[in-house]
Amino acid sequence: MRWTRCPRLAVGVVAASALWFPPPAQAAPPPDGGLTDLVNPFIGTQNEGNTFPGASVPFGMVQLSPDTGHRTGYDYTGNRIRGFSLVHLSGVGCAIGGDLPVLPTTGDVTETDYAKYATTFSHAHEQASPGYYRVGLDNGVRAELTATERTGVQRYTFPATGKANVLLNAGQSLHRNVSSTVEILDDRTVRTTITGSGFCRSTRPYTVHTLTRFDRPFTAHGTWYQDSLTPGARRSSGPGRNGAYVTFDTTKDRTVEATTALSYVDARGAEVNLAAAHAGSFAQAREAARRAWEDRLGTVRVQGGSATRRAAFYSSLYRSFLAPNIGSDADGRYTGWDQRIHRESGFRYYQNWSLWDTYRTQSQLLSLLAPREARDMAISVLKVNKEGGWLPKWGYGPVETNIMSGDPVTPYLTNAYQQGLLKGYEERAYRALKKNADGVPPADTMYTGREANREYLAHGFAPYVKGRPYAKTGDSDYHHGGSVTLEYALSDAMLAQMARGLGHQADAARYAARSRNYRNVFDPSTGFFRARDTSGAFAGPADPARSEGFHEGTAWQYQWLVPQDLRGMIGLIGGEKAAGDRLDAFFAYDRLMKDPVKTTREVWVHGPYAYYNADKYNPQNEPDLIAPYTYLSTGQPWKTTDVVHAALTLFTDGPTGMTGNDDLGTMSAWHVLSSIGIFPVQPGYRTWGLTTPVFERVDLTLDKAYYPGGRLTVTAPGTSDGRRYIQGVHIGGRSYERTFVTTDTLRRSGRVDFTVGARPSGWGTAPDAAPPVLR
């Protein structure tokens, strides 16, 4: 069990400094069955990491967690809890979810606004571990939360009183609550229907249905609408605040347990999910959740590294398994993107697609550690296309939000193809991707897709149109023409490889040619990418640190987003020497080597949303996730290790112990993969870059259906003693000189052994050692 108190913040800062020159290895792995004890769910709950500390199971539909008033749910600096609500997304930057906040109180019920009836608490009385959350509220109630796949389970221990209440607020959420209905069905059961919207700029509504059943009868009840309370009433409905309260006599039996089921289909779905949960008692549900997390975390066993490093690592691994989320009910029904009810067959339906983020790291990690679920997730995305008419960009529940830009669904699905997850679905996936890559969604649909595709196909770039009115809710590709051109070109490169693998040679050549469109936004006069306007003229300031038309970044940060052709990009800026010099300036490499911890925190990081007006590496956001691995293509692979190991010190064991929004496991997956020493340097393809692991040994238990040996072992004896430079690599027992490896090689070998030393070596510096150009 993990307690979190404010003093751990200071501990995290000290530990970060120690990580650069770590203490001697602690070789003994954690005892079997104890990996959940290493996880700190409070990591990322402060400084806009936007994680949540509450209870969920891997990929569960329900994330039962406290809300303190922060727009995305919980903030560690808060001291008032408004309720424990059912739905949270780990690390998103905009409000969504927070449906049905429930709060235990005592005395008379007099307020209906959760901002007014919120109760204070102290972190000294707060615990969290995977699948479990507990807090002692200052109103005298102890609240405990756990979860099953589709239910949230609560246990409240009240003072001895005849007025122990549970408030169920159907009319307030983290997002805009459109309408709600609450019904008290009998003396144990409350049902709600909640319709909400409002993720970032999205306005499309979605509906959730809940059913809450208490373990014993309540003695009184009532409902409210807006500010008006009606004791004894059983129903309230409308566009404003609706809620219900139920009261128990706890003068003798002080404990009340409740299970709340969630469905995105209908009220019957919530009933089915409640019946199927088999939660038993709270203690039984909690133990089942703990076992589920032990099984997941147990697929990766590490040896070596400091205690802080292991805690941070397993906490990131935990967050990597929080999403996407189960979207179907226990009877197999789900609401499709045509807003009709469908039934899954031969797969499990998932939802919540933060694709602009996850296509770079998390989808690859899941393809490695959870391939069966990753396959079902990819099939679910294809169902979105079949039922809704187009592929998604950023999907929440059964609706498209159109948040972020570019074409992230293409590398997401081509990665699934390259990892062997789409067997039997290859051509269906290819047809959907081809339609997406060569067209624009109809105007009367909710999708934006490749919004600027007509201009991109005609002229070879997506134009930057400052201030252009939004055609649909969400983001607009026209507002980010510079970065969107790079994103489209990356997607074209990955689709070309899939087309070639499926025998569509003409398409492959066409998409491969389009993958070079990144050159069309390169400005030779500045040596950087630069957005173009509709006339073709370069737009915005020439200063790459003040550039316009790049989504959540600058031209400095986007200059390396050409993983399909880094050799060509390096040629554009003058060759390896010029590229190396620019990389050194970008990472402040000289300062990094003198004081790595200070450089990471004062030169790289300037605030969680400091995306613009910068000429340095931003480890907090997606455009730069691959950038440290660019040194693998400039003949200086040891510098990748220097930068990656410095960036890893930003992950510590405290509320501020991660960098930037986690974005449904994206940053966490970066941490996990970079710590292991294999990283997807060409997202959408099967290339993994190599760098020194931070652990002496990592054993991954893999699915034998995809990795016949069932294991992948990565060793680096001495890395915990500060010897971080690769002297040599052996794969499957044979010497290996390249700085990358393919999925097929990993499957055949099952082992990567690093020999490390205190100084850089000539390993990986040969001209043919760099990751390949995709043609």
TrEMBL record:
Matching Gene3D superfamilies: 2.70.98.10, alpha-1,2-mannosidase, alpha-1,2-mannosidases domains, GH92 mannosidase domain
Entries under NCBIfam families matching the protein: aman2_put (TIGR01180)
InterPro entries cross-referenced by the UniProt entry: 6-hairpin_glycosidase_sf (IPR008928), GH-type_carb-bd (IPR014718), GH92_a_mannosidase_put (IPR005887), GH92_N (IPR041371), Glyco_hydro_92 (IPR012939), PNGase (IPR050883)
Pfam families per UniProt: Glyco_hydro_92, Glyco_hydro_92N
Any one GO biological process: glycoprotein catabolic process
GO cellular component terms given for this protein: cytosol
UniProt GO molecular function: carbohydrate binding; peptide-N4-(N-acetyl-beta-glucosaminyl)asparagine amidase activity
Keywords, sorted A to Z: Hydrolase
PANTHER family: PEPTIDE N-GLYCANASE PNGASE -RELATED (PTHR12143), SECRETED PROTEIN (PTHR12143:SF39)
Record's protein name: Glycoside hydrolase family 92 protein
Species in which this protein is naturally found: Streptomyces nodosus
